[in-house]
Specification:
By secondary structure, the protein is mostly helical. The chain has a two-stranded antiparallel ribbon.
Length: 261
Amino acid sequence: MSAPAVHAPLGGRIAWPLVLQVAWKNVRLRYKSSLLGFLWTFLNPVIYLAIFLFIFSRAFEQVANYPVFALTGLILWTFFATTSAHVLGALVENAHVLRSLAVPPLVFPLAQLFAGLINLLFSLLPFALLLAAFGWRPQPVHLLALPTLVLFAVFVFGVSLALSTLNVYFRDIGLLWNALLPALFYITPIAYPPDLVPADLRWVAGLDPLYWYIGLFRTIVVDGGWPDAGVLVLVTALSAASLALGMVVYGSLRRGLIANY
């Protein structure tokens, strides 16, 4: 018996087996003809980590275990950057399919999200081994990292779906996003501790949603502490608002997608 399909609020039905099939195909295509294949999912953050260790490890001596601190930020950043870029291009890149087949357009952004989650899940084991090499040890509280990643995935999908829909009408959106990603990387405290931001400018850092998700993830994984209730409420609200934004933009512009592919 096939998995039940759910009704999209925009008409049409989303066949989840189809979404997963396309997602797995996307994972395989990303590493087709690559000598290292899936290892690139793990190697890219490790390369960044090596650079961070070489440049910043002595600059931030106040961070107790800088490699673990940096690596946990890189795990979320890598998922955010790669998944948002793939979801953003999902509708335009599959225009030929959407013109010829009665497939709900939402299938392709969802498939890219699930492809990113598959990559993330496959990379968690080698990441855990690398973290352990730097002295990190698993604790029961670390299980809370999984719902944190789910909330983060919902946030990423909502933002990316809105961008993907707008990208069909204005191709500048994709170019602008690629230009903004490096700026977001340096604005977000990934390579440096949040307390390095001057006190009078921390409200600016607080406007960056990634600041809260990465901070929550580090509280759980690096500090081994229970997350602050206020932060949990905030990131949950951010995820819900992001998803609502993405679905509203997609729903408002869906009827004109085919004419603009």
